[in-house]
TrEMBL record:
It is a multi-pass membrane protein. Part of the ABC transporter FtsEX involved in cellular division. InterPro entries: ABC3_permease_C, FtsX, FtsX_actino, FtsX_ECD. Residues 56-160 form the FtsX extracellular domain. This is Cell division protein FtsX. It comes from Streptomyces longisporoflavus. The keyword Cell membrane applies. Pfam families: FtsX, FtsX_ECD. Residues 183-301 form the ABC3 transporter permease C-terminal domain. The lineage of its organism: Bacteria, Bacillati, Actinomycetota, Actinomycetes, Kitasatosporales.
Amino acid sequence: MRAQFVLSEIGVGLRRNLTMTFAVIVSVALSLALFGGSLLMRDQVSTMKGFWYDKVNVSIFLCNKADAEQDPKCAKGAVTNEQKEQVKTDLQKMPVVDKVEYESADEAYKHYKEQFGDSPLSSSLTPDQMQESYRIKLKDPEKYQVVATAFSGRDGVQSVQDQKGILENLFGLLNGMNWAALAVMALMLVVALMLIVNTVRVSAFSRRRETGIMRLVGASSFYIQAPFIMEAAVAGLIGGAFACGMLLVGRYFIIDHGLALSEKLNLINFIGWDAVLAKLPLVLAISLLMPALAAFFALRKYLKV
């Protein structure tokens, strides 16, 4: 009976300030949805980095006759067989190297024709203009600089390129978007906290007669504050539930259906449902504790007990 009475009183308290309660629920829902989305974006970026960094190679391009005439790095002439063998031997001795593959000029020309056969430049290229290269798979993609330092400037080597660098701009953009979402989330949390404090303040003012009577009969400070704290916590929890719903719906329509990015972008390894479900308890816990704490500290100022 007591639990039913407490719940009914919480319902009455929320309805008394229905507009502000609705604003609290919406602001908490939006801010926590952004918070959960930011966490998922961070997981997505980490997943993409692990997926792509594991596939990228370091390429050592060797000098050809055309480079010897045009590129100062190849001023000593095209790469010789001895230089190629020395590069391969040194690569295989390096502990950071996992696998070494050689690509001849003919193979490079064939791959170019397969990928860019429709390009106007393809008809003017010949196999002897293509560069021989070594494609190196590293045990740790972050160790690229070790290979670059060892082979850059060596006779017969035109350049050392890290494919990971191509992805850095993409990941930089994604991280920038994530920070922007966190900034908006922080702003929404501030708005939500201000609304919670104002709601509690108005509720305490409208019930000052009741609280005065409770003080006269000897009610403790916590007993007087508890209904206001519980009202704020319930409103926040409702907002948190909506935030969880938005995360689930967003994952369903953006990745699986609707936009169906998982089908359109097959090269991206998207996060699974387990990552989304793992964030929901955290979102609900914050939605419950944040309004309760905000109400508690607000009552210390506005409710003299």
